[in-house]
From TrEMBL:
It holds the Pfam family GTP_cyclohydroI. One of its GO terms (molecular function) is zinc ion binding. Residues 35-187, 275-460 form the GTP cyclohydrolase I domain. It comes from Carpinus fangiana. This is GTP cyclohydrolase 1. Signal peptide: none annotated.
Length: 468
């Protein structure tokens, strides 16, 4: 049946549901005030000035985002399910036929968002849920999504999320069985350096999990075949979904052996920052002493310190401003032999200074290079991107800073395009999962030559995808 025991479910089903927008007076609520105070401690620990423009309202924004992203603690499933049960023709004693169309009802591709309980970083979920009606009873299809969202909006790991959704629907609908499959995508953690040093490095951890009840209780049940076949119609291959008894208990990369080695090299996390994160957990309705959460504050602080306001080295490899070190050995330059050079898909990770949530993507750089100059190296450009990315940032500023630095090296004719996926677009009320943002900065000839801009923009491959 899953991880959610019947006693817990009875409480969930009896207490009703509290839905809707954040109440008036949100800023004055004790939980909000506590989170705001904790965020100020985190910003100080990063060496930031909390009164600078861009950070003044960050504590409140973070409080809103976290409370919105964990609103499932303040919701239950009773009214969602029981208020949407409808009679439908079927067998009185046994498995119904859902209007004569067949015994299985599936809703596919539900986009969910949750926070990993191991590190407090966000992860995205593609949820597929189905059930076999019984007792002449079906449920409104949108309610399957709403029930899944209640449990997603809590600190989670993938398997427990699948089990809780499955158990809640089984108890609420009383069907012949419920099946849940989740495709989960966790951002890289905690050391960002491999993302830049290894072009084959995977920046996402992906896991496929499942949970079943009733006729789906047995992993080899025939009904699973129908469920998986209907998913294949959408190009989803879920044959390798992990089961509840899978030995793969640890999915969060913060608990991998490599990340533990990285953490030990970085030393102990700032105690004040760790205490502040524990305070945030309490304010969200969690118990920081729950065994799964004991190390969470420390892990989150170590992630955050990737973006500390310090003098991270920009490895310019000896290149001087103005491009003089790029000249050929004989120093000859032919001014009229300029051509466009480009470096595409430079990876970056950053942290939104408005919400303290990650954003990530790729940077494309174009520039005119005179015939007597050698094109700038990819490693140098990646170093520049890494330097400006590993700070509390906004995408517009990141784009401008990269363009200005590259321009100082090459003499002015530069175009930079940044494509990014922002966690803050999906962690709050708007929840625009799958959205992406593009920004552009143009300097020198690119600002006055539409043909040159167009030529570069058309060279950007249509391969960037958001999320996992």
């Amino acid at each position: 049946m899953g991880a959610l025991d019947e006693v817990h479910l009875d409480v969930e089903l009896e207490n009703g549901v509290k839905l809707g927008c954040i109440e008036l007076g949100f800023e004055e609520e004790p939980e909000t005030v506590a989170i705001k105070d904790a965020v100020k401690v985190l910003l100080h620990g990063l060496g930031e000035d909390i009164n600078r423009e861009g950070l003044r309202k960050t504590p409140l924004r973070v409080a809103k985002a976290l409370r919105e992203g964990t609103r499932g603690y303040r919701q239950t499933v009773k009214e969602i399910v029981q208020g949407a049960l409808f009679p439908e023709a079927g067998l009185d004693n046994g498995v119904g036929h859902a209007g004569g169309a067949g015994g299985l009802v599936i809703v596919r591709d539900l986009d969910l968002f949750s926070y990993c309980e191991s590190c407090l970083l966000p992860f995205q979920v593609k949820c597929h849920v189905g059930y076999v009606p019984s007792g002449q009873r079906v449920v409104g299809l949108s309610k399957l999504s709403r029930v899944a969202d209640v449990f997603a909006k809590r600190l989670q790991d993938p398997q427990r999320l699948a089990d809780e959704v499955c158990s809640a629907l089984h108890h609420g609908i009383k069907p012949a069985g419920v099946a849940v499959i989740l495709q989960c995508f966790h951002i890289h953690f905690p050391n960002l350096e491999p993302v830049f040093l290894d072009s084959n490095h995977q920046g996402w951890v992906k896991v496929l999990v499942s949970s079943g009840s009733g006729v789906f209780e047995n992993d080899n049940a025939e009904m699973w075949g129908d469920f998986l076949s209907l998913l294949k119609f959408k190009g989803i291959n879920a044959e390798k979904a992990c089961r509840r008894d899978s030995s793969n208990q640890c999915w969060c990369p913060s608990q991998s052996s490599s990340s533990e080695k990285t953490s030990s090299k970085n030393g102990a996390a700032n105690p004040g920052m760790v205490t502040a994160v524990a305070s945030i957990l309490r304010s969200l309705g969690e118990d920081p002493l729950r065994k799964e959460l004991l190390a969470t504050p420390c892990r989150f602080v170590k992630w955050l310190l990737n973006f500390q306001n310090n003098n991270l080295e920009m490895k310019l490899n000896g290149f001087a401003c103005g491009g003089m070190d790029l000249l050929k050995p004989n120093g000859e330059v032919t001014p009229n032999e300029k051509q466009i050079h480009s470096e595409l898909n430079l990876s970056f990770w950053s942290q939104c200074e408005h919400h303290l949530l990650p954003f990530h993507g790729v940077v494309h750089v174009g520039y005119f290079c005179t015939g007597g100059l050698n094109p700038i190296g990819k490693s140098l450009l990646q170093s520049i991107v890494h330097f400006y990315g590993c700070k509390l940032q906004v995408q517009e500023r990141l784009t401008r800073q990269i363009a200005e630095t590259v321009s100082s090296l090459l003499g002015g004719d530069v175009i930079v395009v940044v494509e990014a996926n922002h966690t803050c677009m999906i962690s709050r009320g708007i929840e625009k999962i799958g959205s992406s943002t593009a920004t552009i900065a143009v300097l020198g000839r690119f600002s006055t030559d539409p043909a040159a801009r167009s030529m570069f923009l058309q060279s950007i491959p249509n391969t960037y995808t958001t999320g996992g």
